[in-house]
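For consistency, the fold was encoded as tokens, which produced the following:
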Amino acid sequence: MSRHEPVARNVRRIAHLDMPGGGQITVRGGIALIGHIEPPFGTTILDVSDPAKPRVLSRIMLDGNASHSHKARFAGDRNLIVVNREMHDRHFLRKGFELAKAEDDFAACEGRMPDDAELAALLRAPVARLGELRDVARRGYDEGGIRLYDIADPENPRLVGDRRTGGIGVHRFDCDARYAYISTEMEGYIGNIVVIYDIADPANIEEVSRWHMPGQHVAGGETPDWDGVRNRVHHGLRVGDELWTACWHAGFRVIDLSDIARPATVAAHNYHPPFPEPTHTVMPLPGTYGGRRVAVCVDEEHPHPTGQPHAFLWLFDVTDYADIRPLSTFHVTDFDAPWSRAHLDGNGAYRHGRPEIYGPGAHQFQEHMRDGLIYCTWFSAGLRIVDVSDPLRPTERGYFVPPPAPGFPAPQSNDVDVDKAGTIYLIDRIDGLDILELER
């Protein structure tokens, strides 16, 4: 098996396009949006009306490297797109916010300021990157939020709306023609919460309401019973009058939006612990299965100790919100993934560095259902297409594992969308777009 060829079953590649790595791909009406991981690339707009010949129409570039804009969505059926702005390399660089306190606490204890090695140890950071953290401590971060672009002419997107949020900014979101359902940090809260904005008038984006888990609103006197930002909103998907919301190490919540000014929790389920990987996305499947209402849920792979399970898919019986129960799970074993150990060092531990290498665990599924199939990315294990027509026995219908990006040790399949014709769009977080079809 060549390291330069894809490994596939029942899936055929139609086209491949080299491009900067993406965090999200969304397709509508022959147009694809790709939100990029690394600045200064923001959003690429593609013509995919002929999937065999994808063509770049335009690129929205970022002003500087402080933020990334790795998510992009259409606002319903309008000629309007919404993109996020979030601190780039946030998990590391937010340590800059802790720097002054770490120095002060050390000085209070030792009677002197820490040297670089001591400060680096306090911040759990390489000495070589202290300069970056000092820069964050000095300038702060105030770029987080959302931007709206008119794409009536997709070759010339036009900025028509800009709304700043708080903290390290907006991570992921859902939106329709009227509202955007944003996962963002906000002043006075610990970790991301839901903020709903009215985007009917892009020039005057208005906040409608907020939702948070009890314990997040520290400015309101709440106290979290967890450490740091382990429990936070990853993002929610609107389905009818509900927002199905993944809450990281707190499982998931169902939020009633029938009164959108007063979101209310109507269901909660948390399986952490014992499962180590955080809840990434959850959505109900259309219809019922044997009288059951069923939801699909995916956890996100992260560097973790050998011996812990990789992230995987869940299927839940959500018929009774007071008694949510798992029905089944779907896993990709290491033996099924050609690059299953590329993320490990010689001692069998996760490699660390920038960019990180994620192993053969799950990440994200297509956020709408088609033909009883779930299309889900599995980082170094590529795309997996799972038939959930029998939710007690999810079955793999096909897979596509692309080769690694040039110079990178493993593929990093990050996001997937499927258009109305059944064409599959798979983006790698390091480099490259693959356009595919499932062989029936």
Remarks:
- Residues 155 and 175 are 23 Å apart (CA to CA).
- Helices lie at 90-93, 99-110, 116-123, 130-139.
